[in-house]
From TrEMBL:
Organism name: Algoriphagus antarcticus
Name by which UniProt lists this protein: 6-bladed beta-propeller protein
Signal peptide: 1-20
Signal found in the keyword field: yes
UniProtKB keywords: Signal
Lineage: Bacteria, Pseudomonadati, Bacteroidota, Cytophagia, Cytophagales
Amino acid sequence: MKKYLPLCFALIFAGFGCSAPEKSTDSKIPALHLEILDSLDLQMLGDPLITSVSESGDSFLFYDFASGDIILTDKDGKVQSQFNKSEDTPDSYEFMVEAPGFVGEDQLAIVGMAGIFLYDKAGNMIKKINHPESLGGGGFMAFPGKSVETIALNGQTYLVTRSLRSRDTYPGEQKYYDTFKHLELVDIEQESSIEIIPFEQNSRFLDGMGYYESDFWPALEANDDKLYLALAGEPTLYRYSLSPEGATLDTLINLTIPGFAGIEGTSRAEFAEGTVMLNGSTSSIQNIHVLGDKLILNYYGGISTEDNEALSKLYDENKMEEAEELYVKLDSQVSRGMLVFDLDSLTFLGNLSLPENADLESFASGGGYLWMQKNRSVEEEEDFLRIYKVKLIEK
């Protein structure tokens, strides 16, 4: 189930080789498939989403949209702690803009409008890091397993989060694209951050059109001193070398993704200051994971521009039931899957379908496995959320 409307407007809050990967016929390329080994059940009503798995695979983080609760469980699904930090309290992150993620095995990080917060497993605030500037607004799109990233540089732990700086501009102006940086590299110890990763020189987002923030919502994974990044609707994989001083582009690969409908730019005249525009039904690379010596990108092929226009018309006419029926129909036809690469060489190894009955939006990783939510039953209410433990098998 998507955690956002197909089309929504979030009001601003006050206050080196380039090549398309081809499937190699080299006999050294392994045959890959996914195998469900086990599962855990989180026993609760509501609308929980798995956001992060600890590196050891022993702890799991969930966010419940119905209550706003953050839930921590062990590998058997037993709740270890459950707390809520969305209320008006000194340790509240206020409006969440990035889902909870683990920092090591014993701390959690959440990015909200009020700042970046570190909590212990019981929900006690350890540290609040202020944003580098006052925020004008922010949107939130949540996928399973997509949360705050951490990376160790020179023996020190940093956070990698989406940048929310306003830069005194908006997507209807050229300045927005010229000055935009996608991410913040946050020094936990110094409680400071630097902005990194602009739109690269040949990015489609520099073509003079306007784009929704969701069009370039970053999918990323930090591993050793490397950062792997893709921008939602742009089928390109970027690899950067990271240091405390910033990021340097190492490699980019143009991707060929079957059924990836692509995105269309929007006239810049349609953008206005004071809004964050998100569309959750267009093509996007949704998440990136490092699993051993493999790099995995999962993608959503998207609903075509023409069908999105038909959907928008129904929503504009307030024909909500018809719009939802059409959306479900179109969404069921969208191509989904995961691209697998060798981590070191970025050699393309295969395009895999996800297990039947798994939530196909995205998934988490940890402990050497992928963790995928089971689709909720549409026929009856379930008082549990099942998480599949999935292994990537080489033949």
